[in-house]
Amino acid sequence: MTELPFTPDRRRVLTDAVTGGLAIGCLALFGGAARAAETGVPTLKRMSPALDRIVAPGTRVEVIATGIRWAEGPVWVPDGGYLLFSDPPANIVRRWTRASGTSVFLTPSGAGGTDPKLIREPGANGLTLDRQGRLLLANSGGRTIDRFDLATRRRTVLAERFEGKRFNSPNDMHVARDGAIYFTDPPYGLAEGDDSPLKEMRVNGVYRRRPGGRIDLLDATLTRPNGIALSPDERRLYVSVSDEVAPRIMVYDLDASGQARNRRVLLDAAPMKAAGGAGLPDGMKVARDGTLVCSVPGGMMMMTPEAEPIALIATGAPIANCAFGEGGRALYMAANDRVLRLPLRAGWQG
Prior knowledge:
Elements: H1 8-19, H2 23-39, E1 43-46, E2 62-65, E3 72-77, E4 82-87, E5 92-97, E6 101-106, E7 124-129, E8 135-139, E9 144-148, E10 155-159, E11 161-162, E12 165-166, E13 173-175, E14 181-184, E15 206-209, E16 215-219, E17 225-230, E18 236-241, E19 248-254, E20 260-268, H3 270-274, E21 284-286, E22 292-296, E23 299-303, E24 309-314, E25 321-325, E26 330-335, E27 338-343
Antiparallel strand pairs: 1-24, 2-27, 3-4, 4-5, 5-6, 7-8, 8-9, 9-10, 11-12, 13-14, 14-15, 15-16, 17-18, 18-19, 19-20, 21-22, 22-23, 23-24, 25-26, 26-27
Helix pairs in contact: 1-2
């Protein structure tokens, strides 16, 4: 893939789209979001012809689960064909299938018996699978990265400290082909955030846990690192920054040793936030062809590796995270108090 810079022209297109400079772009981004807020019906807005190879025209977004305190961390489990998603404040991981609907899969999903004056989100947040198909949990309340064997239901702590200090509240993860776990550690699980008396870390970091257990700090400068993903060739690392003042998506080049270099802004989401988009940059996934699906102010955006918009899914409320499922034939989204499903073309593998 030819690496192109995020040029001022592309930045202007996005900015104009959300501030009204381009009427079509503005309608695509926030007209659908406004209607979704009024009707409660999720909308899919086509922003590029590239969407047609991903989603068939006329496809609707389904609501498959409701009544959730805060939906997060969806992951599709191929062995069994079901979706898991977390509810961090409720300390639950739920399971969904088309046949049986939603049920409780794991409780507590994070730490039990926490003090709500100190721990805001006791449960697990981000979920993913390791290379052996075992469930990984970003245990926000327990402040660890955990592994959960789906067959034996045995839980193992994989990462708890860096240089002797406890993590803040691990949030999201991505597993590389060699088994390394890239993860983010904002203070969102702590009741007082950066001012929490429990906070031992000086930074809100982006980390990598190597297969042997060693942990590397990749970036110590981000205020609110959140969603994280690798490009298909694993030469790029993407990190969402859910900072109210400077919301953005960062991109890094990964060298041969897996270290992050050449940090830069891929998408400045401040204009979207200023235009009234609900939420902040949050969870993300990257398809096999490099298409990014990223939470942004206003919903869940599909875009090219150069941040050119393809589509926006909107509900009028924040959409926190997403996952491909069913062999790439569906996109699942954790959307505030509900979970959404968008059918994808069978020939397009996410």
